[in-house]
Amino acid sequence: MPVISFATSKGGAGKTSSSIILGTTLCEGADVVLIDADPAARLIRWSKRAPLPPRLSVLQSRGEKHIQDEIAEARARAAFVIVDLEGTASRLNAFVVAESDLVVVPMGDEQQDADDAIETLAMLRQEGRALRRDIPAAVLFCRTKAAVKSRLERAINEQIRGGVATYSVELKTRTAFSALHNVGGTLRDMDPTDVSGVNKAIENAQAFAAETIDMLEGVRNAEPA
Ligand SMILES: Nc1ncnc2c1ncn2[C@@H]1O[C@H](COP(=O)(O)OP(=O)(O)O)[C@@H](O)[C@H]1O
Ligand SMILES: [Mg+2]
Predict the structure, then answer these.
(1) Among the bound ligands, the one closest to the CA of 181
(2) Distance between CA atoms of 103 and 140, rounded to whole angstroms?
(3) CA distance to 77, 129, 185, per residue, from 134 (Å)
(4) Probe ligand 1: pick from 107, 143, 175, max atoms within 8 Å of CB?
(5) Pairing of strands 137-144, 56-60
(6) Which range is least confidently modeled, 39-48, 85-94, 146-155, 211-220?
């Protein structure tokens, strides 16, 4: 079933966190496989911290020689396959992107993030040319301030939104999202008296998952019959 990957050349942009947030939300209603294709294996580290929900499985990619088989096998058994990538251009990344129905490009509200996102989108267009197909991609603003944006942040945000496909949902900077890495498991496992804003984070995650499903639907409808 559909393959969603998270890619951007910027380290710390939010790829791994957003993959976890999407995977742990979608698995509430469907079988999901999360593939860690980053040798740093942060997703795997998260997955070992606490028991996983029943409909979610996590696997560590064995690398570029295996990734295509791993994705094919995951596709056959899950409704959604999510791949977390490393932040550098590699053959592994190129193989994953080629298999993706949607590439999510996470970025913050800073100029450096915008430059990296634009560079990543250009790379995706180039990969698409080589494959003779468009690789559907969308920018996801994440780690953005929960409070009102500054004028500069707003300008960067608008510049991106005016130019490229962008999620309307933003994954704000939330303690519950960063806490996922420390405690493992899902947002629903968190005690709202322990971690502030868990319910808002769950709502935010659900809106992100719903918009991802809409995007995949849009991609499917745009495909030639
Ligand atoms: N929406 C968010 N809210 C709070 N912290 C976040 C959010 N997204 C990412 N982070 C934090 O930012 C850091 C980098 O995020 P990560 O997902 O590991 O980026 P990447 O995988 O792109 O390198 C981590 O410490 C993570 O906890
Ligand atoms: Mg990462």
Answers:
(1) 1
(2) 10
(3) 26, 7, 35
(4) 143
(5) unpaired
(6) 146-155
Residue 124 Cα distances to 30, 39, 142, angstroms: 28, 21, 20
Helix (H, G, I), strand (E, B) or coil at 144: strand
Of 160, 158, 169, the residue nearest 210 (C-alpha): 169
Location of structure tokens 């942009």: 13
Of the listed ligands, the closest to the CA of 20 is 1
Q: What is the mean pLDDT of the chain?
A: 94
CATH numeric code, 3-222: 3.40.50.300
Q: Domain locations in the chain? A: 3-222
Separation between Cα atoms, residue 161 and residue 171, nearest integer Å = 15
Q: In this prediction, what percent of the chain has a pLDDT beyond 90? A: 80
Ligand 2 midpoint to CA 43 (Å): 7
